[in-house]
Amino acid sequence: MGEIEDALAAYRRAVYTLQSIRQEISLGPGSDPATFRKSVGSAYLELVDLLLQRAASMRERARYEPYLEEARKAVESLKVAELRDYFRDDCVDAARRETPLDLVSQTAVVIYPILLPDRTELLVSLPKDRTTLESLPDAEKLYELKRFTVPVGADALTQEVRKFREKLERRSTLEYLPHAQRLYDWLIRPLEPDLASLTIDTLVFVPDGPLRTIPLAALHDGRQFLIGRYALATTPGLDLTDPRPLPRESARVLAAGLTEAVQGFPPLPFVAAEFQEIGHRYGGRHRQLLDRDFLVSRTEKELREGQFTVVHLASHAQFGHNIQDTFILTFDDKLAMDRLARFVGLFRFREDPLELLTRYRPRAIGLDLIRDLPVPPGRERLEAVLAGNRRIIAVMKFGNGVEMGIPPPPALKGTDRVGFGDVMVDPGGIVRRGLLFLDDGKTTAYAFALRLALVYLQAEGIVPQPDGADPRLLRLGRTTLRPFAPNDGGYVGADAGGYQFLLDFKEAPGSFPAFPLAALLAGQVDPKGIEGRIVLLGVVAESVKDYFYTPYSRGLQAGQRISGIALHAHIISQLLRSGLESAAPVATAGEWAEGLWILLWSVIGGAMGLWVQPAWRVSLRSAGVLLALGLAAYGAFRGGWWIPSVPAALAWGGSTLVVTAYTANRERVWVKILKERIAAAFREVAVHVPWIGWRFEQKTRHKG
Questions:
Q1: Could you give the angle at the alpha carbon of 358 between the alpha carbons of 445 and 515, nearest 5°?
Q2: Can you give the residue ranges of the CHASE2 domain (predicted)?
Q3: pLDDT tens digits for 36-72?
Q4: What residues does each domain of the chain span?
Q5: In which element (H, E) is residue 389 found?
Q6: Residue 278 and residue 255: Cα distance in Å, rounded?
Q7: Which residues contact 10 (CB under 8 A, 6 or more apart)?
Q8: Distance CA 568, CA 537 (A)
Q9: Exposure letters 520-534 (e unless 16+ CB within 10 A, then b)
Q10: Per CATH, domain 99-245 is 2.60.220
């Protein structure tokens, strides 16, 4: 027993590792499912095998049932892993939820056929009988798991399934019956005593391997088909579906199918009777697209505009190894699975835009919405989407000594898919700095924009690293992001807490494509504009008060602001350019160089005030100098340098004003002194040569 426990521990670690690195090992589109089963799925199956062996060695249900439950969950994880690899899409994880078997109807059983090399195991969820249920406490499970061992290995069962399918396709003979009966004996006969005692009316199969390729309804007990005794359902995984019954009175059905032969495929005459039955059951609550009405464009229109809860398709289909070769036949085209998923999303996710967005395969999704308090309805679904899709990053508020922080959604608490959205705002409401990290003394939090940028860069093979020269600095690709210092640029003694950096805002206003949520839900957004990109989901409204000014805002009017979601986009863009294009952040010259720069402009201003006269020329040249300084600062900023233009302008203007005032005052003093000296000189001349004045007076009188 000790050896089995050691082996179990090893396989549990292996499966856990496979789950954590699933994106890196995904075989991707075009890979053979059998290859996936051998290379990755074998670890899951061997874990299941060991769990079932361990359960078989125990007699008490309280001891063996946890092993059976773990085996069932491992099987569900394998189903999700296979689908994820086939579609190469994490939306499979988003769709997954831990489905309690208690949600399954008390008249239904769930059957997991597990094909192992030396045997086939049937792991079956059976509802407890009514007598037992009445005596159970409320917290007790409403079902029990049982295992049934069939001494038929995977190879033998696979061969029998292939023979059954081959014979079944020959409709004119009954040669398939012996194979149908043999499969019944292996898969259903062991369960008959329990099915009879519990009055079961529905069998739910989670088929594995070759069993997915046959209609289990055609299994035969020697007297009748399985469908004649039970209602049947199949699902790729119970965790990928909602087993609760859909109320028929509220269901709205879109039924689409073909009876005629089209595009080289044979007719399906029984579809007409199938649609008649649907019409009988649902009456005016269903819409039919049959034959020439079953067009791709018509189907899309119905799904976009209708309010359907069920889509029923009855047509030919092809499911190949490559998802591009997998389709459902319509009258005018072949409807590929990815396109069908988009169409179905038009109605299925009408109230779940986040899940619809994941279907478009963005590289990362930023949820710029504070969702810390659970609000029904839809809370469970939102938590499942958040927890199941590693592309989604949610925002939270870190807070400070003045404002309280706001935690992330509960489903993401404690994960690496949360980032703070706090912003450094300068006086006047202008944002010039971005934040990468904040520290409260206990934990270090990542910024919302940084989390999203890292998800994108990781797919490009770029991960954050410490700088080689100074390990305290962050390095993305070949670019080191040096933290902001209190006196950088035009700042003097600014708050440099956390890990800040200067923003360049190189993207022009409106350069980030934006679309309203209504357009997404209406299917009016081109998936190619989303696939492989970072998508931010947020609110842009005056009531939210999430607007900021940038260094390029030409005034403080409302039209010069950008929204918070656009600000995050600018920060993400700058981080991506740093990692992908080696674009360095905005640089400053250092305190000594900036001091010399300001001193230089002070000297220039003083020289202008000293040598340029009169005052109107000073004013004219001052306007030209200020314009030149502004253009130089703008050009330098666009080139990645922040020169302190405002302090330089103030130093220039101050020195010009002081020197001009000094010069003007000095001139006034000189003029006054000159006038006094001239007047004194004239008085002295008048005393020494009085006759000059007398003659001048006489001449004046004579003329008068």
A1: 90
A2: 316-608
A3: 556 677 888 888 899 999 889 888 888 888 899 999 9
A4: 1-96, 99-245, 257-348, 364-581, 591-680
A5: none
A6: 8
A7: none
A8: 11
A9: bbebebeeeebeeeb
A10: no
